[in-house]
């Protein structure tokens, strides 16, 4: 019992990590896209938990709100929309491209890992700094907000325009009129 | 005027440009074109005379007056082959001295006269052809005047090339006819061979002397003859190669008879009076180089002498009136070089001077005959034309007598002087080649005999006896218009009096009135002042040459005149058929050249075309195109249209980038 | 003790799975979901280093990444809708117009 309490963080990490990976494997594994979507949802929630573990509470909340609550819903909507008549249950082709893809992807992962391994040599700093605003401990959300609206105001504005453009684009592409279709 | 020498070639150049660019396009009337051309060459003549008078009166005839028109190749100081410092700059400089004055005089005068003649002769051409003809003729005058006035080998070479070009343009004037175009090409190509030698000479001279200015070279040689004696022989020989090409000596004479394809005034101007004499002029200009090299001198003399006899022998059996005159020109040029080779540069130039008058007169007369015969040139179809063409006949006879060397006409004075100088060189053992010169003197006499013979053969065949040309042609026979007969008269008079300026001591009973020789004395003092032979020897020599000439005339009369005309020569030809056909076919020289040179070169050209160009070069291009095609075929597979393939490729690209960045 | 390395390993695995999934799956929607996986892996990376360095920049950046992911998902799904309207399929192998 004592060991359990002492290593609580580690246990939580491993559990969450396992859930994340399991969800990822589910995404690429399930034939049925609805199953894949739900698996992705699980991944997102696990990642949110990991964010909390890393003292990024605000981001965890954002993750759940936007990813799980927004994007996943969108995915499910579209799956339902195009699913009924159009998507046959297709077998998964792990034959033709899969070996190449796995090989290449693995190689890429190894390379990236090498780089990151080298980068991760510095010791961990004080995590309390993540909750501080100019030395005053207020909480992660305030700290992120303080950073966002002062040092990163321009990217913030630009991203909001990107969202606007995306919104317009999605509406335009999704319209029912014949002459205005984009894509493919 | 003597400082504006550049105006002299400029006037005909302007005439050529106006006629060629404007008259040719707009199709001017004949009057306008001929007016422009006559103004061009007439002003050149006037400017030349003014310059000569100005020069003679202000500086005296011994002076050398140079005009630097502009700096052409500014090279600055540099080292010659021997390590001497020299100023290597080449200027465009024109020079007026006694030699160029002589050349200038008769080139512009005879040139102008022939321009006048051409107005009548070419009147049946279309407006554009007419303009083209006169443009070329004026352009030729420009080039020839540049040649004559050049103060260094480079400017001379400009004129040299220019006259070669104009010769090609004018020989091939009727270029629609295949044989005329070929004749033009032949002239240019054979000329080019000579020009190659000339260029090598220029380079060698520049390397040796550090300058190619005549005055400069002469000064260097006079100051220190020993240093340059070794280089003088190759330079002189190479210069002579150029002269062989331009002045149609053995073995590069073959273009001149074919050049008769051009209009007759062209033959008169270019291939009798001016262009072909450029070689002699150039040798005379460079006499100080030749004087240093006995080998070169004797080579010049031998080539000249052999050519004189060789060409004369061919002329014996020709039936085309222009061909006879062509071979006669080659032969007379041989005499000029013979004189130069014997050190008598002045006598050679004198013969150039007199020859221009009577040979031009002969050619123009032949043109008049051809004009009357409506284009027929074969003498076997002529005869008895004296009645129909009196002016032509008399001027032709006068010029023929001059050419044959009958006193007191011009040709006699100059030819006799040449033979006399050659004999003196032989007897005086010039440079140790005395026996050679004596043999050449004998050859000169043989040539003179042949000259007299074939020229009077031509006279008798053309103008005497019965007309053999057929019924319709008789009606066409008429004397030429005055634009053609006046030049004939002028040149005929010239043939008589031109000799009077150069009468040697013997003829003038020891009075030293050889104006010509004195005029040209400063040009080549070294060799001219040689042992003058005693008077009696000179009289004997004169007697021999006149006897030879008269003998030739009489034999021609026996063969070709009177009721028994043509019988003896025909009998002779039948007795020696092979000899006759060989001579009549020009000793098959053209055929030999064809076999030995033209065919192999044509074969080489064909191989270069079929073998190298088509197979190697085109093949390489086609192969590269083929490989590009194959590469395209292979790369095509990258763009499958399959989205997942593209995704895989993106992944591979990201892998490559990551690897490059990290490793 | 959970070091940064652990998180990096996790993000690596997630990333690899996402990449492999992108290439292997034929359903366009599933491919888009794999893209989200990749973006999440990147986010984990950012936050891990933010924690290690004590710098909030990583978290701010992760906010941006999530935002862009949302935009991209929206447009991608819009494309799918248009594609279905055109080709009546979301099978990537069947949407090719070129003849290979």
What does this protein look like?
The complex is a heterotrimer of chains A (about 180), B (about 675) and C (about 100). Chain A is mainly α. Chain A has a domain at about 1-85: NADH-ubiquinone/plastoquinone oxidoreductase chain 6, subunit NuoJ (Four Helix Bundle (Hemerythrin (Met), subunit A), Up-down Bundle). Chain A is built from seven helices and two strands. Chain A has helices spanning about 1-5, 10-30, 35-55, 55-85, 100-120, 140-150, 155-175; strands at about 130-135, 135. Chain B has a two-stranded antiparallel ribbon with strand order 1-4. The longest helix of chain B has about 45 residues, at about 590-635. Chain B is globular. The relative contact order of chain B is 0.07. The model of chain B has no long low-confidence stretch (mean pLDDT about 85). With about 100 residues, chain C is mainly alpha-helical. Chain C contains three helices and no strands. The termini of chain C are far apart. The model of chain C has no long low-confidence stretch (mean pLDDT about 85). Classes of the chains: A mainly alpha (about 180), B mainly alpha (about 675), C mainly alpha (about 100). Chains in contact: A-B, A-C, B-C. At the A-C interface, helix 2, helix 3, helix 4, helix 5 and helix 6 of A face helix 1, helix 2 and helix 3 of C.
Q: Could you list some keywords that capture this structure?
A:
heterotrimer, B: 663 residues, two-stranded antiparallel ribbon, C: 100 residues, Helix Hairpins, 3 helices
Layout: helices, strands, pairs:
The complex is a heterotrimer of chains A (184), B (663) and C (100).
Chain A: H1 2-6, H2 8-29, H3 33-53, H4 57-86, H5 98-119, E1 132-133, E2 136-137, H6 140-150, H7 153-174
Antiparallel strand pairs in A: 1-2
Chain B: H1 7-26, H2 30-59, E1 65-73, E2 77-79, E3 85-87, E4 90-96, H3 98-121, H4 127-149, H5 153-171, H6 178-209, H7 214-223, H8 225-246, H9 255-258, H10 264-273, H11 278-285, H12 287-291, H13 294-315, H14 321-341, H15 345-372, H16 390-404, H17 410-427, H18 434-463, H19 471-476, H20 482-497, H21 515-520, H22 525-528, H23 535-560, H24 567-575, H25 577-584, H26 589-635, H27 643-662
Antiparallel strand pairs in B: 1-4, 2-3
Helix pairs in contact in B: 1-2, 1-4, 2-3, 2-4, 3-4, 3-10, 3-15, 3-20, 4-5, 5-6, 5-10, 6-8, 7-8, 8-11, 8-13, 10-15, 11-15, 13-14, 13-18, 14-15, 14-17, 14-18, 15-16, 15-17, 15-20, 16-18, 16-20, 17-18, 17-23, 18-23, 24-25
Chain C: H1 4-24, H2 28-53, H3 57-87
Helix pairs in contact in C: 1-2, 2-3
């Amino acid at each position: 019992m004592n060991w359990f309490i002492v290593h609580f963080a580690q246990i939580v990490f491993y559990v969450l990590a396992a859930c994340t990976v399991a969800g990822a494997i589910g995404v690429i594994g399930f034939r049925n896209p609805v199953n894949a979507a739900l698996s992705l949802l699980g991944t997102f929630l696990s990642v949110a938990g990991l964010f909390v573990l890393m003292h990024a509470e605000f981001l965890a909340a954002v993750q759940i709100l936007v990813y799980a609550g927004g994007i996943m819903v969108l995915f499910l909507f579209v799956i339902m929309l195009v699913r009924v008549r159009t998507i046959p249950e297709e077998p998964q082709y792990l034959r033709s491209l899969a070996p190449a893809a796995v090989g290449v992807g693995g190689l890429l992962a190894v390379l990236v890992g090498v780089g990151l391994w080298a980068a991760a040599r510095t010791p961990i700093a004080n995590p309390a700094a993540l909750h501080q605003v100019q030395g005053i401990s207020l909480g992660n959300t305030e700290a992120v907000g303080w950073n966002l609206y002062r040092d990163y105001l321009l990217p913030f504005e630009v991203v909001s325009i990107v969202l606007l453009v995306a919104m317009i684009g999605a509406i335009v592409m999704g319209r029912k009129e014949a002459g205005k279709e984009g894509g493919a | 005027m003597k400082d504006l020498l550049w105006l002299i070639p400029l006037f005909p150049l302007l005439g050529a440009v106006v006629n060629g660019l404007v008259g040719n396009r707009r199709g001017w009337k004949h009057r306008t074109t001929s007016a422009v051309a006559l103004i061009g060459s007439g002003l050149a003549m006037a400017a030349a005379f003014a310059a000569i008078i100005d020069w003679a009166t202000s500086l005296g005839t011994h002076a050398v007056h140079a005009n630097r028109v502009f700096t052409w190749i500014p090279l600055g100081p540099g080292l010659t082959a021997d390590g001497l410092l020299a100023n290597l700059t080449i200027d465009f400089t024109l020079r007026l001295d006694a030699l160029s004055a002589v050349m200038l005089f008769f080139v512009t005068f005879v040139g102008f006269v022939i321009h006048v003649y051409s107005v009548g002769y070419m009147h049946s051409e279309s407006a554009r052809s007419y303009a083209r003809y006169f443009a070329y003729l004026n352009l030729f005058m420009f080039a020839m005047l540049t040649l004559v006035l050049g103060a260094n080998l480079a400017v001379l070479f400009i004129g040299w090339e220019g006259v070669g070009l104009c010769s090609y343009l004018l020989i091939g004037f009727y270029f629609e006819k295949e044989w005329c175009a070929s004749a033009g090409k032949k002239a240019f190509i054979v000329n080019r061979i000579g020009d190659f030698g000339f260029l090598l000479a220029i380079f060698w001279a520049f390397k040796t002397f550090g300058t190619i200015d005549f005055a400069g070279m002469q000064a260097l040689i006079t100051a220190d003859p020993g240093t340059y004696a070794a280089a003088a022989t190759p330079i002189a020989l190479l210069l002579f190669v150029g002269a062989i090409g331009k002045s149609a000596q053995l073995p590069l004479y073959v273009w001149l008879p074919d050049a008769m394809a051009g209009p007759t005034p062209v033959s008169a101007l270019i291939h009798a009076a001016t262009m072909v004499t450029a070689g002699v002029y150039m040798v005379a200009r460079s006499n100080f180089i030749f004087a240093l090299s006995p080998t070169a001198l004797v080579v010049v003399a031998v080539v000249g002498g052999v050519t004189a006899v060789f060409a004369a022998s061919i002329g014996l059996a020709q039936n085309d009136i222009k061909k006879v005159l062509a071979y006669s020109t080659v032969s007379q040029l041989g005499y000029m070089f013979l004189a130069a080779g014997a050190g008598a540069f002045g006598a050679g130039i004198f013969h150039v001077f007199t020859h221009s008058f009577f040979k031009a007169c002969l050619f123009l007369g032949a043109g008049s005959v051809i004009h009357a015969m409506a284009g027929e040139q074969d003498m076997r179809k002529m005869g008895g034309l004296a009645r129909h063409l009196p002016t032509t006949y008399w001027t032709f006879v006068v010029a023929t007598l001059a050419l044959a060397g009958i006193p007191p006409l011009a040709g006699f004075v100059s030819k006799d002087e040449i033979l006399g100088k050659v004999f003196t060189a032989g007897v005086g053992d010039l440079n140790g080649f005395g026996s050679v010169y004596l043999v050449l003197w004998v050859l000169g006499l043989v040539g003179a005999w042949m000259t007299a013979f074939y020229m009077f053969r031509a006279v008798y065949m053309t103008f005497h006896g019965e007309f053999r040309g057929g019924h319709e042609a008789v009606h066409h026979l008429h004397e030429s218009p005055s634009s053609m007969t006046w030049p004939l008269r002028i040149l005929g008079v010239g043939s008589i009096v031109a000799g009077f300026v150069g009468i040697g001591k013997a003829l003038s009973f020891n009075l030293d009135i050889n104006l010509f020789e004195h005029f040209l004395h400063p040009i080549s003092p070294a060799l001219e002042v040689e042992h003058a032979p005693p008077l009696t020897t000179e009289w004997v020599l004169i007697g021999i040459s006149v006897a030879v000439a008269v003998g030739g005339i009489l034999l021609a009369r026996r063969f070709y005149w009177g009721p028994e005309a043509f019988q003896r020569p025909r009998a002779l030809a039948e007795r020696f058929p092979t000899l006759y056909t060989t001579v009549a076919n020009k000793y098959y020289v053209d055929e030999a050249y064809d076999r030995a040179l033209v065919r192999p070169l044509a074969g080489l050209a064909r191989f270069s075309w079929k073998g190298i160009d088509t197979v190697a070069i085109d093949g390489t291009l086609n192969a590269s195109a083929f490989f590009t095609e194959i590469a395209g075929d292979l790369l095509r597979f990258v763009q499958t249209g399959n989205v997942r393939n593209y995704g895989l490729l993106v992944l591979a690209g990201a892998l490559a980038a990551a690897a490059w960045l990290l490793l | 003790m959970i070091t940064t390395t652990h998180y990096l390993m996790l993000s690596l695995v997630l990333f690899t799975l996402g990449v492999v999934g992108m290439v292997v799956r034929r359903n366009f929607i599933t491919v888009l979901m794999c893209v989200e996986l990749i973006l999440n892996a990147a986010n984990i990376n950012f936050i891990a280093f933010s924690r290690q360095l004590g710098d909030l920049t990583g978290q701010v950046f992760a906010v941006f990444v999530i935002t862009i992911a949302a935009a991209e998902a929206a447009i991608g799904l819009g494309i799918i809708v248009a594609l279905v309207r055109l080709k009546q399929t979301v099978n990537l192998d069947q949407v090719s117009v070129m003849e290979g």
